[in-house]
Amino acid sequence: MEFTEKALVLKVGRFRENDVWLKLFCAGRGVITAFAFGGSRSRRRFCGCLDQLVLATFRIGTSRRGAYNVLQEGELLQAFPGLRADTRKIGLVAHCLKFVEAVQLGQEGARQVFDLLLETLTTLETQALGAEMLPLLFKAKLTFEQGLAPDLALCVRCGRPVSSHGPWDHVCADEDWRRLAFSVERGGLVCGLCDDVQAEPLCLGSVRVLEWIGRSRPADWPKLKLEPDMRRELGRVVDRFVAWHLGLRWENGTYRKI
Ligand SMILES: [Zn+2]
After folding, report:
1. Count of structural domains, the chain
2. Among 172, 214, 212, which residue's Cα sits nearest to residue 191?
3. Domain that holds residue 255
4. Are residues 31 and 106 in the same domain?
5. For residue 179, which of 68, 90, 168, 220 sits 20 to 30 Å off, Cα-Cα?
6. Cα separation, 56 vs 47, whole angstroms
């Protein structure tokens, strides 16, 4: 079987003298491993395509017994020179790539994440994004797009409206309504009347940022400015949310399954 698909090179390694293996994020298939036999010598078939962080259209076949993928040829589409020239940006990208790899996407949901990653790289290529902001935004957006968007309108315990659009200012003068919290396990907000000791406290501003992340695209992200307190609060909630729903935790420079 042979197919042609747009893919981003996540990792590259050499084996034997002239052969190369690649971890590719294919737009419609998720992450696969493929081998480019003679890849380190063949300029004609793979010109500029066998580097990390290259976007290319690859023609991919399978070995005779169908045991592994074999790259036939590649056509370079984008090499992101602006990212390569900036070590700080490369570090941010590496974080995003590790996360994508750790999520272990199958065919389903791959396209959305592929588009998200590509838009993130395109944004970073030309604009600056804070090192403390990008992993938070990327992780939250990717997780929300996997069908895990949190419920930010109604309390996940009692069903009362709690969002900024809700009528809670008028419905109840009780200050308890204003104390919000986020239940990681139930995937949404808990109102102040429901006592959930496990829930993370969350101010209304942070709730609005989570709503905004749900609507935003990476091109919008450089506009977001957050106070350190809010950033920490959101970082804590997003990290716990990702750990609970995707089973991933950032430890010692990599994502681990928990
Ligand atoms: Zn409630």
Report:
1. 2
2. 172
3. 84-258
4. no
5. 220
6. 10
CA of 193 to the centre of ligand 1 (A): 5
Give distance in angstroms: CA of 194 to centre of ligand 1: 4
Does 125 share its domain with 41? no
- Considering 23, 47, 79, which residue would you say is the last residue of a domain? 79
The C-alpha atoms of residue 19 and residue 39 are separated, in whole angstroms, by: 5
Residues 236 and 204 placed together within one structural domain of the fold: yes
Cα 144 to ligand 1 centre (Å): 22
Q: Which of 197, 200, 160, 165 is nearest to 177 (CA)?
A: 160
Query: Which of these three, 55, 79, 103, is where a domain ends?
Result: 79
**CA 138 to centroid of ligand 1, rounded, Å:** 29
Same-domain pairing of 109 and 212: yes
Tens digit of pLDDT at every position of the chain (258 positions): 899 999 999 999 999 989 999 999 999 999 999 999 988 887 788 889 999 999 999 999 999 888 999 999 999 999 999 999 999 999 999 999 999 989 877 778 899 999 999 999 999 999 988 888 999 999 999 999 988 999 899 999 999 888 544 444 444 444 444 568 999 999 999 988 887 888 998 888 899 999 999 999 999 999 999 999 999 999 999 999 999 999 999 988 889 998
Measure 161 CA to ligand 1 centroid, in angstroms. 8
235 and 129 housed in the same domain = yes
Measured between alpha carbons, how far is 152 from 211 in angstroms, rounded to an integer?
7
Separation between Cα atoms, residue 32 and residue 22, nearest integer Å: 8
